[in-house]
Amino acid sequence: MRKAVLVTGGAGYIGSHTCLALIREGWRPVVMDTFANSSPEAISRLRSLTGSDIPVCQVDIRDTEACRQVMSQYHCQSVIHFAGLKAVGESQAHALEYYDVNVNGTHSLLKAMTCEGVRHIIFSSSATVYGEPTKLPISEDHPLDPTNPYGRTKLTAEKLIEDVASSSADICFGILRYFNPVGADQSGKIGEDPKGQPNNLMPFIAQVAVGRREYLTVYGDDYSTKDGTGVRDYIHVSDLAIAHLRALEKLVGFDENFVVNLGTGRGYSVLEVLDAFSSVSGRSIPHRFNERRVGDVATVYADPTLARNLLGWKAELGLKEMCRDHWLWQEANPLGYDGEH
Ligand code: NAD
Ligand code: WQD
Fold first, then answer.
1. Is 180 near ligand 2, meaning CB less than 6 Å away?
2. Other CB atoms within 10 A of residue 18 CB
3. DSSP H or E stretch at residue 259
């Protein structure tokens, strides 16, 4: 019998890619999602890609009783917790909602796990918990000082998980701090489908390339970087998905808590990403320079050593593959899953 894993937010961008990787390696994902920022079509695509009948429960993680019921009905033995709100700007305007979903939602899930005897949780955290880098590359012992409400909800959820695990509750955790996830599965069938105007660089570039938007605004050309534009550690979502499998195996196999960065260890500037995307897509991508975006920093990239040593994982795919696969998805699905944005 395949082991059932509850995947909260499993219809979303990273969750759907992780479900695919889970099925390919013999696990049985059970998706829990409200579809607040995703489409049921992602699950239909996953079903047709894998031939697997993925159970889906339209349940809010804040509903503890409903979470318990799902865990019990499907005999879930572990949880990968992606569900949450993730837009930095929106988190400033809607802080209450962000704390409610990201912190209270995590609390509710932990409570349900404790009641149902589900012991292992992998949590989606973010490099945003580090705030402004005081040293590069960023290793896990870098000071934690998020500069926006979204980042603070992620850090609070981390602390909540750690506190619950060190209390009498029988919980073990793996906290994964993602850098900048991009790209899509090589099938071109699933990918990132932001609602409204994309906040992040790669989906914005992809929408310009496909003709949905006129031009990219490049935020700042006066950073002290190789070409004046911001540098980030982009990581292919398929590499990221595989890291979740290694993390789950580690957690279930050894009952050891851990916090690890997931990045490549290499930074690329906005202009380098633009060039790479233009070259793989064969499309010109008009862009205009503007002021720096408030809250942005010049350079961020991970020290990925711990992930390699602890999980035996490292990112395999480079910038070219990230752009190629993001484009495959965008070109085949110019208007996303539901074709009506
Ligand atoms: P996403 O928005 O595509 O996926 C999140 C999913 O959670 C969506 O399907 C959404 O419908 C669902 N959801 C939201 N609120 C819910 C609720 N109350 N109950 C149940 N489901 C709910 O985002 P993603 O990019 O796949 O990110 C997944 C996780 O990784 C998030 O927790 C995010 O904070 C974190 N993360 C993302 C990035 C990134 O750049 N994409 C970087 C670092 C960390
Ligand atoms: C990358 C670079 C921008 C858009 C954010 C969150 C972080 C994490 C990942 C969730 C920067 C530049 C961007 C555009 C641009 N998410 N840019 N024009 O800001 O590193 O991280 O997503 O956890 O928490 O903060 O990613 O993709 O928004 O920006 O010039 O239209 O691209 O200034 O240098 P960021 P990003």
1. yes
2. 30
3. strand 258-262
Nearest residue (CA) to ligand 1, atom 15? 84
- In the structure encoding, which two tokens stand for residue 66, read together? 């409903």
The number of the ligand nearest the C-alpha atom of 130 reads: 2
Active-site residue flag, 337: no
Q: Which ligand is nearest to the CA of 133?
A: 2
For ligand 2, whether the C-beta of 262 sits within 6 Å is no
**Token couple for 64:** 């503890």
Cα–Cα distance, 109 to 7 (Å, whole number): 11
pLDDT digits (tens, 9 = 90+) for 232-256: 999 999 999 999 999 999 999 999 9
**Catalytic, out of 98, 99, 130, 150:** 150
The ligand 1 atom at the shortest distance from the C-alpha of residue 42 is 9
Taking only the tens place, the pLDDT of each residue in 156-179 is 999 999 999 999 879 999 999 999
Which H or E element spans position 162? helix 149-166
Give pTM, 2 decimals.
0.98
- Reported as type and span, the H/E element at residue 48 is helix 40-50
